[in-house]
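Next comes this protein:
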Amino acid sequence: MRGNRALAIVLVIIALICLVVAVVYLTLKTNFLASGHPIRHTERSVVLAIVAVVCLVGAYLARPRRVA
């Protein structure tokens, strides 16, 4: 079975976006999607980091294999 290069690239891009947003949620106090005062969104940053790891694993599995 041949890999899908486009899918692997898309998954890596999604993983990078998730990692950036996770770092922003973890380091800055934001009031995005929160009512009231700005807070840190620790749970959301952890979930986004997990999604990024899953996307990277999917990209690894979807990459084209080299034939020796």
Observations:
- The chain has two helices and no strands.
- Residues 1 and 65 are 9 Å apart (CA to CA).
